[in-house]
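HUMAN: Ready with one sample?

ASSISTANT:
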Amino acid sequence: MTFKLPELPYGFDFLEPVIDAKTMEIHHDKHHATYVNNLNAALEKHPELEEKCVCGLLRNIEKVPTDIRQAVINNGGGHHNHSLFWKSLTKVDSSEFSGLIKEKIDAELGGYEEFVKSFSTAAATRFGSGWAWLVLNKEGKLAVTSTANQDSPYLSGLYPLLCLDVWEHAYYLNYQNRRPDYIREFFRIVNWDYVNERLTNGLEYFKK
């Protein structure tokens, strides 16, 4: 199986003014594409892995041969993280915070405002490049965390629900060095319907 760059589920300008069209174009067509190409190049050395999905590779990273393991972490993580990120976003101020994710955030993370504060801190304090995450753990509980570079929560046995890319290429054209402004605006474009879908899938995943 050769991994392919997924199409965006919307136009480059769909998320404006939170994320500008030029940033989306470069981020998707250049950065994400590079991770896909590099992942495919790494897997060419081990064709027995080519039928594995990227989630399976990351969840079972210890089974990936050592000569390509870091390349799979970097590029498989980059491919999956970005694929999840695009689907986590929707038109500005159009998605309602509701459903099971609201119930669990209220019960487990102190409500929406506390969640936003915790998630924003994780994003703002991630030194250098990386991601902020809302994840589900094996006990079926929510947690907020961050990862460096393109590391995936799957590497730690967590199930990702929502992510924010805090690499500079994700926001620098519009926000320059103002990462906190980018983080604040992010909550206007969260696709809570998709997060609810991920949550349902994650709860089923941990029952297996």
